[in-house]
Amino acid sequence: MTRTARVEQVTIEGVALLATLVPGDGVGLLALHGSNEGGTAELAGILARRCGATSLVFTQPGNPRPVHIKSPRMAAEHCVLLREFLARVSLTVSLHGHMRAPHTVFLGGRNRAAARVVAEALAARAPRFPAVTDLTEIPSGLRGLHPRNPVNLTRLSGVQVELPLPARTSGGTNRPPDAVVEALAAGVETLGRGFTE
Q: Could you tell me which of 113, 114, 106 has the C-alpha nearest to residue 135?
């Protein structure tokens, strides 16, 4: 399968964004706020290459103060590539960043079984970042349950991975720590084997 990136310029709520789709298989890696939430765009690309997954990343190139657009507002009618992404993949892993509990990863989204798979991979390979799957313990704004949130628009819905800053950046760069990459790659590969058929 060719993995040639395709790009589309879109405007959502008056904000110019660049969507970049790299086609792959089964599981989809999504970074809706690639310019706002450092390391999420990079992580989506790394995981997609390692796992052969499809990735879709939204950025605001050239904007020194990126605007945060709520995930449900990023729904499919705005973007041809997002519609293609949602049609191509069965299950989505949507990567986000938060600035709340400094080492906690919150796992929301409507596919709770997928959230538990990702939690197990993090516990095994990146125990420094405990994962919370109990929705009652996840801050309401990070639960990713809105029916128009793109993480929930694929056939099997998906898991919203809310990463604290140390889990998505390292050494003052947007390079995610190796342990987090290893953990999420293991989780994505497990989801690809067991959830997308």
A: 106
